[in-house]
Amino acid sequence: MRGPRSLAVSGDVADGTLLAEPVTPAYVRQALTHIAPSRPHRLVAYNIASVHDDPAAARAAVRPALEVVGEPDWRPHITPLLFHDELVSLRSRCDSPREFARALPDEWVGQLAVAGTPRQARSRLADLFDAGVSSAVLAPVGSDCLASLNSLAAVL
Description:
Layout: H1 4-13, E1 16-19, H2 25-35, E2 42-51, H3 55-62, H4 75-78, H5 84-93, H6 97-103, H7 106-112, E3 114-116, H8 118-131, E4 135-140, H9 145-153
Parallel strand pairs: 1-2, 2-3, 2-4
């Protein structure tokens, strides 16, 4: 679910809504205004995730998965962010999605993914739950799937 109409329909007829990544607290709050549930409603947030003792390594791991967030289809996720205009401008200056992902400031990467140390990842998840998320789904990244899953377990 992304757009206001599909979110509104979800609030009218469903018991919950799945929000595709990237999900930020600002996007959750905006989505909830469109969902406007009249009964109990679960909100599930998907996010790209990497947990590592070195936060720079975690951010580097998620960058390739963030290549798409500069594309127009992802605007509903990005519009509520304070850096929306800067992100759109950055994408327009980059020749490719790959260049765009590499140029994303670390602070933005930290908001567009659950990436960092275990403590940072737990804090990011707490912010999502405080904004109204009922459940969080973390999509691991990297070539070693088992190691990626094990790193996410450090958040539990």
